[in-house]
Amino acid sequence: MKEITATPRFRQGAGRLSLDYLRTLRYRGTPGVTEELADPAALAAWVRQCGPLIDGPRSAPPPTPADVLAARALREAAYALVTAAVAAGGPVVPAAAARTRLNRAAAAAVPVPYLTAEGELRRRADDPVRAVLALVARDALDLAASPALLPRVHACASPDCGALFLDNSRPGTRRWCSMDVCGNRAKKSALRARV
């Protein structure tokens, strides 16, 4: 009997944790914009799916509605920083509020690695949500301060997408955030137009 695996709730594969996090505002800049971090359960689900595998204490507090608002604000600060750095072709100084938000999030404790008795590498954090958001903030700061990577950060060529991705292809000419989704849609659309 085949095992049925659930379709991932959130899109991944942008090439960096921070860019995957930016995708939680889906279809950014289009009429179909969709907030994927709609509530505390969605934020916790993103951390479980997209962050490193983390063990937390059973007493770890679940995210609150205030945590969701802070997480969204962090996402928008990261988006502003990365897009400004890409446009400038190098590091930029973001607005004071964005800089403060990113620096504060990046200063939080990150997941600590440990080895289990079975030899499996795991990570532990007292507050898994805050720890993963610290990794997101650190990744956004690192990406925005990396002149060699910035020319490889592209917006998806699909007019209905709005996602950013890091182009790791050798020639650096990738056009779609995902060939399976946006690239496939574009090919089907082009085929329909020819027929």
Describe this structure in words.
The chain has 195 residues and is mostly helical. The protein has a single domain, classed as Jann2411-like domain (Jann2411-like fold, Orthogonal Bundle). It has helices spanning 17-22, 40-50, 65-88, 96-106, 128-144, 179-194; strands at residues 25-26, 34-35, 54-55, 112-115, 121-124, 153-155, 164-166. The strands form three sheets. It has a three-stranded mixed β-sheet, with no helix packed on it. Strands 1-2 form a two-stranded antiparallel sheet. Helix 3 (65-88) crosses helix 4 (96-106) and helix 3 (65-88) packs parallel to helix 5. The longest helix is centred in the middle third of the chain and has 24 residues, at 65-88. The protein is globular. The N and C termini lie far apart (40 Å).
CATH top level is Mainly Alpha
H/E topology pattern:
HEEHEHHEEHEEH
Number of helices: 6
Shape: globular
- Helix percentage: 40-55%
Structural class: mainly alpha
Low-confidence stretches: none
Radius of gyration: 18 Å
Mean pLDDT: 87
Could you state the CATH homologous superfamily? Jann2411-like domain
Major sheet summary line: 3 strands, mixed
How many distinct beta strands? Answer: 7
Strand content: 5-15%
CATH-defined fold name = Jann2411-like fold
End-to-end CA span: 40 Å
- Which architecture would the CATH scheme give at its second level? Orthogonal Bundle
* Integer count of domains: 1
Walk across the major sheet and give the strand order. Answer: 3-5-4
Describe the protein's topology.
Layout: H1 17-22, E1 25-26, E2 34-35, H2 40-50, E3 54-55, H3 65-88, H4 96-106, E4 112-115, E5 121-124, H5 128-144, E6 153-155, E7 164-166, H6 179-194
Parallel strand pairs: 3-5
Antiparallel strand pairs: 1-2, 4-5, 6-7
